[in-house]
Amino acid sequence: MDKFSVFSARLVDKTENFTSGHRACQGCAEALAVRHVMKALGRDTIVAMATGCMEIISSPLPLTSWKVPWIHNAFENPSAVISGVESGMKAMMRKGKLPYKKINYVAMGGDGATADIGMGQLSGALERGHDFLYVCYDNEAYMNTGIQRSSSTPYGASTTTSPAGKVSIGQHTQKKNMAQIAVAHNVPYVATACSSYPFDLMDKVKRGADTPGAAYINCLSVCPTGWRIPTEDAIKYGRLAVDCCIYPLYEVIGGQYKLSYKPYKKVPVTEYIKGQGRFRHLTDSDIAFIQGQVDREWEKILKLCGEGK
Amino acid sequence: MAKPMEKITWQEIETGSVVTEIGNARQYETGSWRSERPVVDAGLCIKCGVCWLFCPDSSVKQAPDGHFEADLVYCKGCGICAKECPVGCITMVSEEG
Amino acid sequence: MAKVRKGIEVSIAMSEAVAQANVDVIAAYPITPQTHIVEHLSEIVAEGHLDAEYVPVESEHSAMSVCCGSAAVGARTFTSTSSQGLALMSEIFTIAAAMRLPVVMALANRSLSSPLSIWNDHSDVMSVRDAGWIHVFVESGQESYDHVFTSFRIAEDPAVMLPVAINLDGFILTHMIEPIEYEDDETIRKYLPDVKMKNALHPDSPVSMGCFGMPEIYTEAQMHRQVGVVNSYGTIVKAWQEWGDLTGRYYRPVETYRTDDADYCIVTMGSYGETAMEVVDSLRGEGEKVGVIKLRLWRPFPFEDFRREALGKKTLIVVDRAISFGGPGGPVASELRSALYGVPGAPKIVNYVAGLAGRDVARVDFRNIILEGKAKAEKGDTDGFTLYGVRG
Hints:
By secondary structure, chain B is mainly beta. Chain B has helices at about 50-55, 80-85; strands spanning about 35-40, 60, 70, 90-95.
């Protein structure tokens, strides 16, 4: 398990392609994820980013945290913008208007940009098979506008538009499974990742970027502000999400599922839920219900990965 | 060095509001946000770099002797480094007194 | 190489012009009456006559988004849409202009729903009037063909860097078969050099595009845009002049027909100009001192050219193709009233809105509009607008 070895940190590339001076909240594991992703991609990369936290905090005119060519256009369209970037570069290189260079074309957005407003555009770009990587930084709500629910918000979470109340549990729908939706497009590479597992995340980013054709990575990005947890616990909760199996880490390469990490001991979901303010209102029976869901989904993933009983 | 936004005239705007000075956000010092700062016990530090790897603000640097410490120009004081340090050599200390 | 004259559908000629312009990326979504343009372009690409990426997107919103991406890397980029398609992409339409991305669009003008209608008027383009694009209106197949080249030349000029919409009336122009003179590729190459974009996205010279603007800087960014659009006028006129010198076909921001001694003029934009000229000829035979003023350039609005043509006339009868609901009149008439406000000796303006969603406006209708408009002006009845031919 090299990926999880402590001293490997020193082997990671020191170059920062996403610089300090960005204005993300304290303890933002989404900014951390961007940092890791950009380390894995390196400088020969063009990024198209959706409107959202990461765009706002990294590009207040006249400043930018980006050291690679970066374009933001609108909320829902990074997949279409990167389609244009890739198509334009491909055509110009083929026609001799530009010298050939291997470039990573990468679109990024939050879960709102990905699972909600930009869903059609992502589907279009995946289906057309542009040579690009899409990274969804999934912090499970519209954090930039003030913690409103998205279709990626998990069941039971209280947000500003799915508040828990006397007659409401908060979010009453199931988290949309974007990785599975990407898989349904038959793209060559799909993975789930989390910035609490940086080596795994960076490996997957490299693999996704190196895969010819469209690749999709869903990166769970803990948001202390929106999840209402202490800032220092951002890494811990990502780890717990994986250890309790509510957010399994896996890859789907050419349609073949592969589990990236199987917890030595499956942590009860209550360990993950109990410290988070967004779940504070949940009762024991609510948590038991969620545990049942997690167990069923985990079994499905194990089976898909050939690790079933 | 980019001018402060409130000093920029329209003639100084690049066509399309493009920013050509990449990574210039480093002139914005987020260290002033901090209410607590991480203090490293260099003697205990095993120089593993976990704090560096998990810093969302890339604000951990390596000292000449190899131990890691916070770059207080950018450190926002989130405390992740202290929490994640495998040997517990980082303590968060209040900036007030 | 010689020019070739072909009897051809305007949409086909336009797409062949796009191929001659050696475009790199075409992104489009099908919508009537733009379809023939993009169908033929995809065929040209499929047959290998044009080396380009044809991106068959899943919506117009994506079409313009793809165009933004490809223009941002310095690729020559073309798209085409109409009506609801334009409405759907309007968010990105504005951003393309703000980010100064030199996309060229054939905008096959069509009415906006509802009721759903596929036929021509100008309600689509008027909905994006203030987005910051350069808008040109053409009135014939030849003009449609020619303006593909001039529009790329203008859009990609380093001093301009703005998207250009070539407005052509849906069906009335797009589906018309006309004799069109083609220029040879050599002429086009000479006129239209490859794109040289200063801040294209490339890892060798990274830049950040589309940044976030606080109130402290947003106003300056808008001023930069405003000056950019206004200053594009000089490049536009020069590009048209050079095209004329090469081909013998000259274009001007405001064009006129028999206006020298005219007391009153009908003002049109788009394909109505041709019918208006025929009607003016026949009215001239009856002793009416009437002429035609045609607006070719809609944005940047050619204030000086227009005033030069308008001053000295008694009355302008403005035919609009869209309604500004609850507003002061059709968008063109409002613009002209504003351009002439406070100008001593300015002509009276009578406004008609006609030909909505392809309602036929025949010569007899133009004749009615001109004579009735003249009479209204003489009575001082110049407020608001008349919806020509409405029943009830």
